[in-house]
């Protein structure tokens, strides 16, 4: 069983002033794949890095963040997560952007997510920072669904 964490980066939901819609979407998808899922909602910025570090320390194999990947002054998820990565996997985010752009989503190219591996006490954790919109999350699920098992197997040392 895969242990996954979903971190929603958003000031309003973390303060109880809005509903988190993208985090539950990711959690439901992962649970449907048989993952054990933990969710947390934190403000944008450094709390995202803290939540990712806690998930890695807890032994999560996969951490998906949602939100904070745009270009507003508070969107800092890529800046706080990128320094944690020991290996980058840029093709994942490139594909998420490409899927959104192909659907005609004008803002898709503005997504600045990062993806890669974070080294922890329990091994390497896959960390992927996704858009905060439900449409962007659905696009990401479409990209990740066919490759997630292979990705996690590779991180565990599986054969090509």
Task: Give the CATH level 1 class.
Answer: Alpha Beta
Helix-residue proportion: 40-55%
Seen as an oligomer or otherwise, the chain set is single chain
Low-confidence stretches: none
Strand percentage: 15-25%
Number of domains: 1
Q: Count of DSSP E strands? A: 6
Mean pLDDT comes to 96
Summarize the helix and strand pattern as letters: EHHEHEHEHEEHH
Side by side, the strands of the main sheet go: 2-1-3-6-5-4
Biggest β-sheet, characterized? 6 strands, mixed
Report, as a whole number of angstroms, the end-to-end distance.
21 Å
Region (Disordered): 1-21
GO molecular function: nucleotidyltransferase activity
Domain MoaB/Mog: 5-151
Keywords: Molybdenum cofactor biosynthesis, Nucleotidyltransferase, Transferase
Question: Would you mind describing this structure in some detail?
Answer:
It is built from seven helices and six strands; from the N terminus they run βααβαβαβαββαα. The chain has helices at residues 11-14, 22-32, 46-57, 77-81, 90-102, 134-144, 148-155; strands at residues 3-9, 36-42, 62-66, 87-88, 115-120, 123-130. The protein has a six-stranded mixed β-sheet with strand order 2-1-3-6-5-4, sandwiched between helices. Helix 2 (22-32) packs parallel to helix 6 and helix 5 crosses helix 6. The model has no long low-confidence stretch (mean pLDDT 96).
């Amino acid at each position: 069983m895969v242990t996954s964490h979903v971190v929603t980066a958003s000031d309003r939901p973390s303060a109880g002033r809005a509903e988190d819609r993208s985090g539950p979407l990711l959690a439901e998808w992962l649970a449907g794949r048989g993952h054990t899922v933990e969710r947390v909602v934190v403000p944008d910025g450094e709390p995202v890095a803290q939540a990712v570090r806690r998930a890695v320390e807890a032994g999560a194999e996969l951490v998906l963040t949602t939100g904070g990947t745009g270009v507003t002054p508070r969107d800092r998820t890529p800046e706080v997560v990128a320094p944690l990565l020991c290996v980058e996997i840029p093709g994942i985010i490139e594909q998420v952007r490409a899927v959104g752009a192909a659907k005609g989503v004008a803002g898709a190219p503005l997504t600045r997510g990062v993806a890669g591996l974070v080294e922890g006490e329990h091994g390497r954790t896959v960390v992927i920072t996704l858009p905060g919109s439900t449409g962007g999350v659905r696009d990401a699920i479409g990209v990740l669904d066919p490759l997630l098992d292979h990705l996690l197997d590779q991180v565990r040392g599986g054969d090509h």
